[in-house]
Specification:
Elements lengths: L9 H9 L7 E9 L1 H12 L6 H15 L6 E4 L2 E4 L5 E6 L5 E6 L7 H16 L5 H10 L5 H15 L17 E5 L20 E15 L2 E15 L5 H16 L9
Parallel strand pairs: 4-6, 6-7
Antiparallel strand pairs: 1-8, 2-3, 4-5, 7-8
Helix pairs in contact: 3-7
Length: 268
């Protein structure tokens, strides 16, 4: 990546002043994608004893997209200025044993391969389900114990300090970049096809990528109608950071990697 790249384009500087933290600056998108080859790759990995899912693969694909194709999306707003992150950390949503949702962090997600992610994500999910969540999620539990209305005041104070003013809170392990670059969530496992989750106001993730349901549908391939496995994908993006060109480049990269998942076996 060009170290001289100017991430503070005129639009970004203006957008940071026009929009508030993603309350009214969201972009929504959805697409159906042929994941037949991707699912075959997952099946082969499982035969080899590697416990992977489409969530693993899309997490790696997106992380590599931010490194190789759209580094402009690996940014966040701090004090009205666009700041480029020095690493690509993924946040993956997981279902807890009690039916609640949590998340696990994958540091430097762009630098690992499929086997490494399977091992890392498996251990992090185990930690999360046994109560050893990451710092951001642990603060959630602490916050929930504060009585109302003090809880709301604490949230406002935290957001003002870390998100609006860019001040770190070291003893809680929180700052304006503590949630990582992006979030991946699989709602297809819950029986949902499409969803547009919130961009958490107390985080600075650039977007939330959503895996939906997968069904077999007739698709035209080489002028022939054949049955293919189609997955519903959705995304919610922060318009202060994203415009149409970024979304197009991200989607093209994802489409390529979905058809060539074997490339994820190689470290980036």
């Amino acid at each position: 990546m060009n170290s001289e790249m100017d991430f503070n384009t005129p639009w970004r500087r203006v957008a940071a002043a026009i929009y508030k933290k993603p309350v009214d600056s969201k972009i929504f998108g959805s697409v159906e994608m042929d994941v037949t080859d991707l699912e075959a790759f997952v099946s082969q990995k499982r035969k080899e004893g590697i416990k992977v899912t489409p969530t693993h693969l899309f997490t790696l694909i997106i992380a590599r997209a931010l490194k190789m194709e759209v580094p402009e999306l690996n940014c966040y707003v701090k004090r009205g200025k666009i700041v480029h992150r020095d690493r690509i950390d993924a946040l993956v949503s997981v279902l807890q044993a009690d039916g609640g949702m949590s998340s696990v962090s994958i540091p430097d997600a762009d630098r690992i391969n499929v086997n490494e992610l399977a091992k890392l994500l498996g251990s992090e999910i185990f930690r999360s389900r046994t109560g050893k969540e990451n710092g951001s999620m642990q603060s959630k539990n602490l916050l929930s114990s504060i009585p109302w209305p003090f809880r709301k005041w604490v949230v406002r104070l935290y957001k003002t300090m870390t998100i609006d003013w860019g001040i770190s809170v070291p003893f809680l392990g929180l700052d304006s970049n503590s949630f990582g670059s992006f979030l991946v969530t699989n709602i297809g496992t819950l029986g949902l096809d499409y969803g547009y989750p919130a961009l958490l106001p107390v985080s600075n993730v650039s977007f939330v990528f959503v895996l939906g349901g997968t069904t077999k549908k007739p698709v035209v391939v080489n002028d022939e109608i054949i049955a293919r496995r189609m997955m519903s994908l959705s995304i919610v993006l922060d318009h202060r950071l994203v415009d149409a060109s970024h979304g197009g480049r991200l989607l093209r990269f994802i489409k390529y990697m979905v058809k060539n998942p074997q490339e994820l076996d190689v470290q980036s």
